[in-house]
Write a structure and sequence with these properties.
Number of strands: 9
Structural class: mainly beta
Distance between the termini: 19 Å
Shape: elongated
Order of helices and strands: EEEEEEEEE
Largest sheet: 5 strands, antiparallel
Low-confidence stretches: none
Radius of gyration: 13 Å
Mean pLDDT: 89
């Protein structure tokens, strides 16, 4: 089992537009452990780091959503010192996500 040391927690945030966790600093990584997203249109839900580099993708149908969790020991990890974005490609959307930053 991998052990990832945490230096701080990403605050769980809800939004109706792309959700961005800012670049955490040199040698640090944003890590996502949970997302929830929905849309009134068929859409792709993506996590990107850096922007336009998809590291997770799921498809949802119109008027549905996704809830997904990852273990702290195996999160979705962004690139070194890069912002992490959670996006829904179409429709009126709601997005929330949480996680942590590695030291």
């Amino acid at each position: 089992m991998n052990h990832i040391q945490k230096s701080s927690k990403l605050q769980s945030v809800a939004t109706t537009s792309p959700l961005t966790f800012a670049a955490p600093g040199q040698g640090k990584y944003n890590c996502i452990t949970s997302i929830a997203a929905d849309s009134d249109a068929a859409a792709d839900v993506t996590i990107e780091s850096p922007a336009d580099t998809v590291i997770f993708r799921a498809k949802i149908q119109a008027n549905t959503g996704i809830e997904k969790e990852w273990n702290d020991s195996d999160p979705i990890r962004g690139a070194d010192n890069q912002a992490l974005l959670v996006k829904v490609s179409a429709g009126t959307v709601n997005i929330s996500a949480g996680g942590f930053v590695t030291p």
